[in-house]
Design a protein that fits this description.
binds magnesium ion; 31% helix; 7-stranded mixed sheet; 178 residues; binds guanosine-5'-diphosphate; alpha/beta
Amino acid sequence: GNSDTDSKNFRVKLVLLGDSGVGKSCIVLRFVRGQFDPTSKVTVGASFLSQTLALEDSATVKFEIWDTAGQERYAALAPLYYRGAGAAIVVYDITSPESFNKAQYWVKELQKHGGPDMILALVGNKADLHENRTVSSQEAQGYAERNNMFFIETSAKTADNINQLFEVCIRSLVRIDF
Ligand code: GDP
Ligand code: MG
């Protein structure tokens, strides 16, 4: 299955994919540390963060979050990141149609080479920049529905929908109610 269970302790691997600059690292930092650092440096390779959440009845869920970078140049390495992942979060920037195209490339790649049970989430980040929006919510939602993915728009800057994004992934992986 997608999660290893030790009766009440769940462990899940999540991987973030998407064009450079769409905000993958900021999303992870916002979720794990509750921070937004506009001067954060570009990730090289993959960085790994883990976060443990307490559920009811002393159960816990430990996320292993793989934040990736450089797949543009090293696409052959990408399978190393998403192998064994329970969920893949494919991120684009709502102000960048190129990044939305790139997201669709990653979705195809995951559909071909990811595990059959992998949960896929499509994330339109930088929702705070709605005045510069060039990818409509309707278009992205429609694409996500046709591809059996969750869809959510987030802002790592304002924290909008960041917890909801991870909750949606976790809920469907662990099938528990929060
Ligand atoms: P990554 O390459 O996908 O990991 O992207 P980063 O997390 O490094 O973010 C790239 C740039 O986008 C940085 O300058 C961030 O400050 C900025 N950024 C990330 N998320 C948001 C967001 O939600 N809103 C805005 N306005 N900027 C963001
Ligand atoms: Mg990064």
